[in-house]
Amino acid sequence: MLGISISTVSRALKDHPDISDKTKQRVTELAQALDYEPNANAINLRSSKNNLFGLIVPTISNFFYDSFIAAIEEECRRNNYSMMILQSGDDPVVEQENIKLCRQNRIGGLFACITSQTSNFEPFFKLHNIDVPVIFFDKVPDDSRANRVCVADAASATIAANTILEKKKKKVLALFGNQNLSITKKRLEAFQKTTGKKTKLIIEHVNNAEEAQQATYLALKENPDTIFCMSDEILTGSMKAIQQAGLSIPGDIAVIAISNGFIPKLYFPEITYVETSGYKLGKLAFSSMMACLAGSTFLQELTIECLLVEGGSI
To answer: Global pTM?
Structure first.
């Protein structure tokens, strides 16, 4: 339509210095009129570089993962990357299908939060073998070959345990997640080490809010004076059981949790929690991904700091 070559059009759209301003203007105006968009797949195929990241989470309907995704998406926009978000439904079979889909789309990097049942990590490491960096976050494999970004699991559990001891609590129902996950192992070990024999612990492992509700309701028969919840999901289930039993907080029972910060503020009084920020973790994960893409081969586990946020629940 303009009577110029394809290569001239291409260079004009890229603002190449060899193309005159007049030609650039003509090309740009026509491209806008035609609503022209470059074929991203063709560009990636030619350059062997894909500015698409994959992100796999157990579920999007989780405020921790929601804030993590928000941080990654924000950094992607700033750095001219796109993002494909996939849910595993905490199902390792679906997780494997998601990894395959990422490979088919020739992603440039993957952010992955594994399921509670994931035992085969080879599909993840196969991505690494074809120069596709994988950054595991939150729920991560206990494998030295993995780049991992986590909240300070041991530190957060230690802060919660110390708060319980400072309040002179004597009998604690401690609700932890799937016992096969490293995040659970680290938090449980630190919590038990800190409390020692100074308080009696009733430890339960649950996989979701429903199990947390049931475990809490049954354990209330043992009259704990405090409930510790390892995560937001566990907290929601436990709070439902407390409300179901008609107990007041902190009069009848105290509550403390490890949380991203949103759920504790939905209750009155607000729940005291140790903050573990999904947003901060997302920023750290993206920084780690950029380091890998820049050529870093150093495998490491990075953590974000945590802090106690006082509510009125303990």
So the answer is: 0.78
Instruction: Name the CATH superfamily, with its identifier, for domain 153-275.
Output: Response regulator (3.40.50.2300)
For the record, the structure tokens of 265 come out as 């503020």
pLDDT tens digits for range 90-141: 999 999 999 999 999 999 999 999 998 999 999 999 998 889 999 999 999 9
Which residue has tokens 């789309």?
A: 105
Residue 35: which pLDDT band, with cuts at 50, 70 and 90?
Answer: confident
Is the fold of 50-151+278-305 the same as that of 153-275?
yes
Q: What are phi and psi of 188, to 5 degrees?
A: -65, -45
What are the residue boundaries of the structural domains of the chain, listed by start?
6-37, 50-151+278-305, 153-275
> What string of DSSP letters covers the chain?
--S--HHHHHHHHTT-TTS-HHHHHHHHHHHHHTT----HHHHHHHHT---EEEEEES-SSSHHHHHHHHHHHHHHHHTT-EEEEEE-TT-HHHHHHHHHHHHHTT-SEEEE---TT----HHHHHHHHTT--EEEESS--S-TTSEEEEE-HHHHHHHHHHHHHHTT--EEEEEE--TTSHHHHHHHHHHHHHHTTSSEEEEEE-SSHHHHHHHHHHHGGG--SEEEESSHHHHHHHHHHHHHTT--TTTT-EEEEEE-SSGGGGSSSPPEEEE--HHHHHHHHHHHHHHHHTT-----EEEE--EEE--S--
> What six digits make up the tokens of 43?
């560009």
Question: What is the residue whose two structure tokens read 């209330």?
Answer: 220
**Class of domain 50-151+278-305 (CATH, top level):** alpha beta
Residues β-bridged to residue 54: 84, 110
